[in-house]
Amino acid sequence: MKTTRPNLGIDGLMSELMTLAKISEAEPPVVTRVVFSEADMRARAYVKGLCTAAGLTIREDAVGNTFARWEGSEPELAPVGTGSHIDAIPNAGLYDGCVGVLGGLEAIRVLQKFNFKPRRSIELVIFTAEEPTRFGIGCLGSRMMGSVLSPEKALALRDKEGCGLDELRMQAGFTGPLESVAVPAGRFHQFVEMHIEQGPYLEQEGIDVGLVTHIAAPASQIIVIEGEGGHAGGKLMPGRKDALAAASELILALEAAAKSSGAIDTVGTVGICEVFPGAVNSIPSRVRMTTDVRDTDRDRRDRVLAALEAASKEISARRGVTITTELVNADPPTVCDPAILAALEASAIAAGKSHKKMVARAYHDSSFVSCIAPTAMLFIPCRGGVSHRPDEYASPEWIGSGVHVLARTLATLAG
Ligand SMILES: [Zn+2]
User: Which residues are paired to 122 by β-bridges?
Assistant: First the structure.
């Protein structure tokens, strides 16, 4: 297959990443690209142009997930997928997500350059709204593809201005029925996503690529504790119903449950704790807090939630406060596909790249693609583990190693 773009290798890819980074709602080097914003639409157009130049055929679904297809010699076979996202949270950098999209495209172009003819088609996927900035929910596009988010629930999503998903996606030109976004199992043969690690370990250990065996998934809750307020001086200690004192016990119970799970992969965090009325001389009458519990193993994670619930009951009874818990979401952790991991490992060895198996501790689109297809991820290092900041950085060598391993893996999977 002929491409109209001279293949410039890693230099070309780096300049494409820089060009994409400049399509931003903020002054460079800051990248801000919220889904369906003018910058998002221009970025999509830029990436689609590069895909078309590489001879790929573009298709978009009703929520804007974009599929750029390199037709295989047996086009009736389910394709192999790769890709990630190009939206970016406010004040972000240029590698998160984009490395998996433009790096995935570069892997395809490398295969084209070597005259490789895939048996299965290879589809580069650009997922809509991996970041939760606009609608408060992460991985919107892949979540809908995996039927983890229903069209009804998607229709209820609104941004801060009160604009609904339906209106915004229509304005962006994505008009089909939302029901059509769900992808049946079997539509993709396999899927592999390249991404920066967003942690420091590959760089610290001097390892070229990480082969992701598990993707941890969070369960998050909103917990409201209602006690009894009063004057901090006037009301003596006996009989107090201090909501913050109760919350403190609950926070420590969560920490203890996460620490004693028996696995290093269990983490539990209270990131928000709002105290009412919030005055120095007033007993806290009400606390609203969030919990975020993550693990690679669903049962183990759910045991932490159960321990928290038991602690809530005990604290509530002993202190005479009311504790209500709302489960916001509890997504399934992902076990990555052994066959793809074997292909990734063989590819790393063949490419002469050092590698280690590791766990992804943040959400990724792959978490939801894994509901419909065997999935794995390939991590490359990022400097200092920094991500979601303008100084996020991955060197051309790191990206080049990732592209090399990804290209070989796609060649293996597409046969
Ligand atoms: Zn990302």
Answer: 70, 80
CA of 252 to the centre of ligand 1 (A): 31
CA–CA distance, 174 with 144 (Å, rounded to integer): 14
Compute, in angstroms, the gap from residue 357 CA to the centroid of ligand 1. Answer: 19
Q: Phi and psi (nearest 5°) for 245?
A: -65, -40
pLDDT in tens, 187-200: 999 999 999 999 99
Nearest-Å Rg of the Cα atoms of the chain is: 23
| 98 Cβ neighbours under 8 A, 6+ residues apart | 17, 20, 21, 84, 86, 88
Q: What pairs with residue 194 in β-bridges?
A: 378
At 330, which helix (H) or strand (E)? strand 322-330
Asked if residues 46 and 54 have their Cβ atoms less than 8 Å apart, the reply is no
Whole-model pTM over 0.85? yes
- Three-state DSSP at 202 gives helix
Rounded to whole angstroms, how far apart are CA atoms 397 and 351?
13
CA 376 to centroid of ligand 1, rounded, Å = 15
Closest alpha carbon to 341 in 412, 394, 264 = 412
